[in-house]
Design the sequence.
């Protein structure tokens, strides 16, 4: 009992330290292996999955697309060539409102859905109040980016209920993916992220590809003045980017220097090469943007000094797929 308590305490302490740490140790894969060992319970789901997909590695070691066998099947159903026909023929399609039916068709073509006023003003106000109080009490804090508040759902009852236990939202996501979704994590923002264009598939990669979906919810009026989300319609149709497509610099022991910046540089080149059109999500509190795993998006510049942009992102993996981080080659630690 004492040994177990000590191990848990070390795990929590290292987790808190690493969430703030920005130094050179982040470049060494052994650091992530140590973290994996300390969080072994959150990796046990990979044992049957590695066997299923023929992965010959320890569940605690690094993993990337190079470790995964090529697969010709397993493409999400709404990514298939005849997706619209399958969608309209599905018996559950007509159970959704006409608005959501239209958005599902839009998701196939454009890579995203917009659900206006999905959460009530009361839900938004309660969530904002809870997050503010949790920050003041130091129960929540910003991670090393200084912008992101990770995993509020673990300590905020409202965040857990509206994002991870909301059956209306989960039913839509399950239907969209053709698999049961597993809530992975949440990120809250007080200010805009101003993050460069990227696709979630490089940071939360799946095998087979495409089995991730995300939602971004406005928690106050959001526009160009406070750094709203931007995205590139149809970018989800581009090939998935891996570390083979840009000079990541990864070795057996280390993650490449400035690999994330090099990835974002590559994405900028793709945007220019394909002539993608940037759009902005100007939103009211409670509006949701749901996007495809491969949709390119980011945070626009904050034009009004000191403006807040309260918002929340939730990511969902699907059951029965391998989940990992392609750049750092970390297997995903799934919530217990």
Sequence:
């Amino acid at each position: 009992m004492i040994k177990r308590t000590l191990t848990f305490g070390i795990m929590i302490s290292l987790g808190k330290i690493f969430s703030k740490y920005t130094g050179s140790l982040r470049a060494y894969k052994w650091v992530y292996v140590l973290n994996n060992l300390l969080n072994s319970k959150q990796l046990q789901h990979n044992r049957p999955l590695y066997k299923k997909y023929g992965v010959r590695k320890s569940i605690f070691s690094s993993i990337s697309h190079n470790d995964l066998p090529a697969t010709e099947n397993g493409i999400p159903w709404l990514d298939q060539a005849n997706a619209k026909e399958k969608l309209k023929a599905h018996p559950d399609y007509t159970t959704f409102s006409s608005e959501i039916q239209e958005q599902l068709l839009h998701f196939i073509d454009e890579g995203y859905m917009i659900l206006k006023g999905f959460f009530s003003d009361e839900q938004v106000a309660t969530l904002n109040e809870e997050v503010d109080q949790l920050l003041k009490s130091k129960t929540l804090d910003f991670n090393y980016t200084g912008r992101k508040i990770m995993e509020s759902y673990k300590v905020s009852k409202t965040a857990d209920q509206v994002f991870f236990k909301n059956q209306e939202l989960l039913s839509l996501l399950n239907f969209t993916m053709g698999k049961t979704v597993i809530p992975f994590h949440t990120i809250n923002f007080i200010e805009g992220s101003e993050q460069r264009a990227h696709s979630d598939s490089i940071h939360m990669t799946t095998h087979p590809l495409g089995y991730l979906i995300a939602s971004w919810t406005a928690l106050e009026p959001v526009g160009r003045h406070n750094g709203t989300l931007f995205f590139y319609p149809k970018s989800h149709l581009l090939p998935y980017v891996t570390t083979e497509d840009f000079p990541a610099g990864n070795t057996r022991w280390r993650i490449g220097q400035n690999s994330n910046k090099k990835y974002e540089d590559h994405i900028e080149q793709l945007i220019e090469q394909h002539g993608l059109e940037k759009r902005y999500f100007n939103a009211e509190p409670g509006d949701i943007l749901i996007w495809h795993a491969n949709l390119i998006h980011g945070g626009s510049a904050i034009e009004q000094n000191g403006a807040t942009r309260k918002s929340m992102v939730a990511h969902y993996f699907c059951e029965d797929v391998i989940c990992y981080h392609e750049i750092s080659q970390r297997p995903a630690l799934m919530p217990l």
